[in-house]
Amino acid sequence: MSDLQSTPRWRRIVSMTLLTLGALVFLFPFYYMVVGALQTKRNPSLSGAIPWPSNLTLNNFLDINHAINLGRSLLNSGIFTGVVVICTIFFGVLAGYALATLHFRGRGLLFAVVLLLQAVPFQLLMVPLYVMLVRNFRMGDTYVGMILPFAINSVAVLIFRQFFLQVPQEMFDAARIDGAGEFRILRSIAVPLVRPAILTAALVTFIGPWNEFLWPFLITKKQSMQPLAVAVANYTQTGAGFHANPMGSILAGSTVLAIPAVVLFIIFQRQFAETHSSTGVKG
Amino acid sequence: MPAETAHRRAPGSRRTVAATPAPGGQRRSRLEFALGRHPAGLLLAAPYALFVAAVFVYPIGLGVWMSFHDSFFTAPGVSVPQPFVGLDNYKAVLANPAIRASFVHVAEFLVINVPLTLVFSLLLATALNSVVHWRGFMRVSYYVPYVTASVATITVWMFMFNSSGIVNQILGPLAPDPAWLVNRFWAMPSIALYVTWKQLGFFILLFLAALQNVPKELHEAAAMDGASRWQGYRAVTLPAVRPATTLVVLLAIITGANLFTEPYLLTGGGGPNGASTTPVFLLYQQGIQQGKPAIASAIGVLLVIGVLIITYASRKLTERE
């Protein structure tokens, strides 16, 4: 809202038109995903973009459920994502508090390493992690192996650290003078203060494991262990050919995969958008 | 940070009481020198520090080690000598035309994706910053692709861009043949376009945050000095968003170097005929499918070196006055 008064009316109209057109382009694939998931017969023509009542069905959802067991895949995605979010919040608050307010040996080094890791692509760790976890520790097809590389989201740690830096240090110092130990301070002062940051950190963390394809794809061979993203991708590559409307059932699976993330981010859009003004790091 | 270090080294200036009860002053200051003013911090940060060491630092080291040795998969618990082979793995990688081609494909991707991302995210963020109504809705529309799984959005793109898909229906006679994703020329640009669409919302948020931090007085001062809109934009807004620009270019390059899901799913395994393979896709093929972790690690190390060189060059470019 930097210059509302000085922005001429015509410029605001140009901005609004540009934004509306852009938003339509951005949202169209989502609309098309839902329409395609509901079609009885695949209709790729222009008229297929309109949901004709005569061509609507929920059979595609039954089809995909029959092929990949939606319930089981959703459960795997839920366990993967849930454990990662819980670990990140618990250990992330501890680490963020320590990095922001405590002076201990190695703090500077740890913080430097965390910042540096933001530039290291996960894919590079793929083969060494695969050798370690699948070959050496036999963690293929286990939740532990799936969760371990994602257990604590570093961006969330940075969000917590940033949040604790904004709290006046006198609050913690006063408690220390009164004789409170660090654990007591954390429980009674720091955690209640950090509550708004927990929601933001949970949102940022959620999209990692929920949407992740590569790692769970590498580590799961059994279909009963695969999260939804992996199950839908494998169905796209191999299993879809035998169904009445293969594209319809693929899009139905995609819709089920997309809905939780989209709904969460519509509900909590303000918290998510504000992350970037405070931390400016990749989510 | 330096001020804090000085503070820690000088126990005399300490105001606060150390968290752990200390039996004697002499011992406390020695302990404090070894562990820092708040030893409890070590305990609190330990789980995360261990995680970082086990999941990032050690694997990076292992990857570099493997790239210089004749490494292969063995049964668990079996120890087989893996002799040092110097640069042999790197020579094998560079001699492989398919792997060289994958690096060229990523370069092609970056040439299309980075400018598109930069121009559209800055343009749309500027537009978002100047509107009053519907801001929340607009913001959500742009970042919804970013928060949705690639697997889900890729399937729609396949549906839209295949030979009888809606995009070709609109283009009619202008549609490329063979269709986008199975066309040697169009496969990589299609991936670049998809990734631009997918990531743009995130970069818009970064620019929006930077734009909102531009002091209003600067624009007013520029207007008072008789600067035109465009002059004001160039003199005030562009310098103010320069750190964000550097970050956007950096993150776009890192994302581009990491392409895997797109060539695997969107173009069906780097197709057509290997025209859209990427280093990470070959890293997966060589390392995990074909059981050559040493070659895969060498690809990974070369990729990191390439990313470092390109990001360094791009920083020089974006931070230039």
Task: For the structure shown, list the relevant keywords.
heterodimer; A: 283 residues; mainly alpha; MetI-like fold; 13 helices; 72% helix; B: 321 residues; 2 domains; 15 helices; 0% strand; disordered N terminus
Note down, in words, how this protein is organized.
The complex is a heterodimer of chains A (283) and B (321). Chain A is mostly helical. Chain A folds into two domains: 9-57, no CATH class; 67-278, Orthogonal Bundle (MetI-like fold). Chain A is 72% helix and 0% strand. In chain A, helix 1 (9-38) packs across helix 12 (246-267) and helix 8 packs across helix 9 (182-211). Chain A starts with 8 loop residues before the first helix and ends in a 5-residue tail after the last helix. Helices cover 70% and strands 0% of the residues of chain B. Chains A and B meet through helix 1, helix 3, helix 4, helix 5 and helix 8 of A and helix 1, helix 3, helix 5, helix 6 and helix 7 of B.
